[in-house]
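Running low. Got one?
___
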Amino acid sequence: MDRHIPFDCLHNFRDLGGYPTPDGRHRIRPGRLYRADSLGKLTEGTPDWDRFLALGIGTVIDLRHDREVEARGRVPAHDSFAYQNLSIEHRPYDQAALTPDTAPGPYLAERYMEVAEDGTKEIRAALELIAGAAESDTALVFHCASGKDRTGQLAALVLSLLGIPEPTVIEDYTLTELATPALLAAWQSRNPGRTPTWPAWGHAPASVMRLFLAALTARYGSPEAYVSGALGLDAESLTETLRTHLLEPTPTSWPPLTFRKATPADVPALVRLHDTAALWQLARGIDQWKPGAKDEAHFRTRIREGEVWLAHSGDHLAGAWELWWDDPAAWGPRPPDAGYVHRLMAAPHTAPPGTGRRMLAEAESRIAAAGRPYTRLDCLASNPRLRTYYEAAGYTVAGAQAAKDGGSGSPYAVTLLEKRLK
């Protein structure tokens, strides 16, 4: 499942549903809480408008300043939802005009703390609206201009109150990265001939949210303490309301996985899945995959020269992997006695439990059917957790490569693992 809901004119409209609580027993109910970029871009009578109304949203919270609403417009009025404009940012700033030497982590975290302190009245009202929508069992969306900063702050606060762990809160913030190219293109279309002077414009690095949450905790003790102390709300009651009405038991049954070979038409989905998995890693401090490191040209090449496989759970893309028939960069010259698994990736939070192991078993079956007795793969030497995962699946360490050249120009150390197939 891709959290971004596709619209023609909106680029950062997302469902917050599906995120799990730390014990894994509950998750946020899908289709109840959305975050977005400016809904002022919607136009009545268009397919986008029909898509929006079909979501059954009962409340729209616009976090932009009045002057932004006047300049860029608001969501069209409709009897199906109530509209509230709550400008939580009292000290506006122009990100596009920042100098290139401005570090996004410290700079934006400081701006977010200003919002947390200046916008207490509006943030309180927004949380009360969210709680009210939850109690009345109606969907709600909150948005700002790009759906990144003000929207990201409110999302982080709500997710924290729902008990979602901090790495997932950070991950949710960074998912704006998937929309950054479209957001930048839209900015340039509004500002012909210009480019933001700040290279970080439109980006959402994990460091921003990590620093903001640390600063909020340092000053108030916790997000809950901020809600009580700065906002004057009963944090315990608010948390109970949100968790009672917005959480549901994690499903115990899922549509069965089905597998098929990827075609060139699947390339954009593969890039998006890779970048989503990369953001999941970075939010947890795993320095391995990078968003944008594997572009469409990479997956077209792998489809043409090898095999790329997709796993679906019902209608949703649950994961994918690459199957190579040789791998000299990691393993050196070898006889044709193995298949090599690369980029085993499952959709974070939305793939059925055990999807990674099921995809691995399917790859092994394909390799065995080709008459090759070994499955081989490598993992970053600095990622012992991943090595343990593969060892639990029956793989044994067969060696190491101190300076694998994966084509990026920066060699890295990997652990080589293999499994003898029955």
